[in-house]
């Protein structure tokens, strides 16, 4: 790739008069040795899987094997159809769609890790809800995936996207930043505005621990995907309105690395701290272990 930082990516866009998606498509094509249309076809396939996961999560039984989670996306959609949500219809739909994909993941369905399975609902939730609202065709959202991928590439190479390495700030936080920056470009914002959206989004999740109850990617992971979709939309709106990340986005990424490195092991996907070690969390772990022993 010709860029290693978010600032470098924005500068490359300015120098070439190109969008982030344009830069990512050209670089990905060159790196893979495949023509741009091949790369687009791969991304189209990924987006189809995302949309299928949204629909599955809204229409099928997504009860997880543990029995701990499932059908919350459907509960939110039922609420949306029968009441006036505080968030407004569009943000509430994005939240439901993000929950849907994350529940499909927890119930062993097919998803696209963006950037991880634990944060797989955020980008589809934001993208699909926005597509419905603005009437975009699939190829517009596919270009959005390229934008999100470019942002994720920078974060992954300068910080973390793994909860085991940097806590949930690395998984959900990165996905929120990727979705926020991509949404800015999808809505016609500049690369500079997209970078501000990333910084605004990441600042809001710094220090978020990874504390999966029972060691499963279910509690609190699924609801964090729902909240993450709403946060991404908020960050995009702030950036489009002209709100700037006073701390440059690359510096925010560096802080995420520093915080993740300093984070105790018990708060990095080990289920040894946080919500996993509350009385209820420990009881759930005990019950899961008993169930596993009976199955074996």
UniProtKB/TrEMBL annotation:
GO molecular function annotation: 4 iron, 4 sulfur cluster binding; L-serine ammonia-lyase activity; metal ion binding
Q: Which cofactor does it need?
A: [4Fe-4S] cluster
| Major enzyme class | lyase
An individual GO BP term: gluconeogenesis
Keyword annotations for this protein?
Answer: 4Fe-4S, Gluconeogenesis, Iron, Iron-sulfur, Lyase, Metal-binding
- Pfam families for this protein: SDH_alpha
Lyase recorded as keyword: yes
Which InterPro entries does this chain map to?
Fe-S_L-Ser (IPR051318), MmgE/PrpD_sf (IPR036148), Ser_deHydtase-like_asu (IPR005130), Ser_deHydtase_asu (IPR004642)
Q: Which SUPFAM superfamilies match?
A: 2-methylcitrate dehydratase PrpD
NCBIfam families noted in UniProt: sda_alpha
The entry's family comment says: Belongs to the iron-sulfur dependent L-serine dehydratase family.
Q: What is this protein called?
A: L-serine dehydratase
Organism, scientific name = Paenibacillus whitsoniae
Q: Which gene encodes it?
A: sdaAA
């Amino acid at each position: 790739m010709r860029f290693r930082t978010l600032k470098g990516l924005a500068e490359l866009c300015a120098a070439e008069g190109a969008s982030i998606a344009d830069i990512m498509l050209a670089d990905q094509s060159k790196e893979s040795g495949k023509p741009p249309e091949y790369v687009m076809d791969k991304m189209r396939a990924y987006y189809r899987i995302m949309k299928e996961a949204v629909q599955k999560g809204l229409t099928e039984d997504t009860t997880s094997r543990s029995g701990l989670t499932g059908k919350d996306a459907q509960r939110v959609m039922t609420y949306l159809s029968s009441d006036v949500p505080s968030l407004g219809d569009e943000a509430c739909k994005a939240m439901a769609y993000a929950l849907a994909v994350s529940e499909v993941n927890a119930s062993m369905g097919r998803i696209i890790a963006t950037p991880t399975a634990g944060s797989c609902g955020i980008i589809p939730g934001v993208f699909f809800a926005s597509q419905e609202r603005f009437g975009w065709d699939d190829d517009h959202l596919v270009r959005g995936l390229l934008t999100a991928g470019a942002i994720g590439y920078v974060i992954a190479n300068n910080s973390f996207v793994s909860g085991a390495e940097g806590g949930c700030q690395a998984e959900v936080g990165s996905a929120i930043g990727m979705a926020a920056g991509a949404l800015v470009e999808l809505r016609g914002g500049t690369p500079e505005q997209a970078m501000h959206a990333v910084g605004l989004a990441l600042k809001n999740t710094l220090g978020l621990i990874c504390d999966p109850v029972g060691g499963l990617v279910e509690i609190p992971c699924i609801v964090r995907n729902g909240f993450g979709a709403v946060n991404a939309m908020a960050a995009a709106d702030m950036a489009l309105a002209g709100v700037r990340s006073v701390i440059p986005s690359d510096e925010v990424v560096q802080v995420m690395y520093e915080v993740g490195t300093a984070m105790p092991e018990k708060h990095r996907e080990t289920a040894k701290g946080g919500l996993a070690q509350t009385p209820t969390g420990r009881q759930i772990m005990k019950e899961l272990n008993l169930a596993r022993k009976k199955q074996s």
